[in-house]
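Look over this record before class:
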Amino acid sequence: MHTALGVGGPVAPRWSARLAVAAGAAAVLVLLLFAGLSSVLLVAVGAAGMALTAAGAWWALVHRALLRALALALAVAAPVTVVVLYALAGLLWVALVSAALWALAVSTGRAALAADTGPDHTAERPATAPRRPFLIMNPRSGGGKVDAFHLVERAKALGAEVVVLDPGHPQDVAGLARRAANEGADLLGVAAGDGTQALVAGVAAERGLPFMVISAGTRNHFAMDLGLDRDDPATCLDALTDGVELRVDLGHIGDRPFVNNASFGAYASVVQSPAYRDDKLRTTLDLLPDLLTHHTGPRLTVRARDRVIEGPQAVLVSNNPYRMGDPAGLGRRDRLDSGVLGVLAATVDSAAQAAGMLRGRHAPGLTSLTVHEVVVEADDPTVQVGVDGEALTLPAPVRCRIAPRALRLRLPRHRPGTPSRKPPMDWRRVRQLALNLGRTARPPTHGPARH
């Protein structure tokens, strides 16, 4: 397929950019034409409603009993009141149309930027079929996907040696993988959750062997970012016969590898409570007030490059940064080979700061960094951490680092969910594209300029 080109660059990005500019202008014009000076009040009332909702949610998290109930009532009543006020003023349709136009503007603008930047996929190359693949499968993962999709039988039919874990007797999966490598396995793979995936991926990286992900876990965040079919894990076995290889980064927390992230702070403390497994919601609501107000739990300090973050309630260190500024893409990573860790630290000590979180990545209480190494300190000798969904307690301080392109991944050639890169909205670049300045707007993609 060939992209139509014009004097100023590809046609499709230019027209998407023009639609974005037109929709954005129309959103403003609808407010001004049909609401007049009331448009200022319209925006102010909406912003106030959102701020009160965020403040009410914060108060509900840090209080109990009657105060929590009152805070929840505020969080619900604020947006309802805004809608009622808009309707009484006859401006509800104006607000809805303007909001829809603005959403269209942002969506088409980001699409234009993505098309103008061009594809940004990890380089992959054809791979020969392994002679002695070794797979580890957990029959309980994902509610029994291993049995439901007959993964053991299908893998053996393709020539793989399969070890099925016994849920009643925990086994050293890293030890199993090392023994298989010593005995001549030329590929390691896992059908289980992300925590097990990471442990075996660490062995594959240290031995220089390709690693195969089978999306048989509950959430399969790693598989999602690789574009694997999470609804049918049997398709992952195609990597044994029609596979490609690519290299991605591997995170390390201390000596333990991780493929997704390591979580510190309130969430990590909640999931380690003995009561959490039996009643997640009640346990979370019971523990959060003291954790968020620093009455219990360690006080964290994050040191990354020349930055020091004091007292965050939550810290997320990820193997490559997560997508920001896109609610639909939260929890996804555009790349797995950028060679850096993503660090997100949230510090919210008041309702005003909670309302400020509505600004997204520009919120004063949110710190977003990309680094090669980060150290998380605590005022306790140990700190609770969630690593790829596994609850751990580690000695403080905790050091996280990235191993660039350390993991050889063996994937099916055809992957239905390969994510497209969506750059953050940049109105200046969108305007340049719309004015036939596409080639000027496009950032360099072939390395640094030569001087």
In short: Residues 55 and 80 are 15 Å apart (CA to CA).
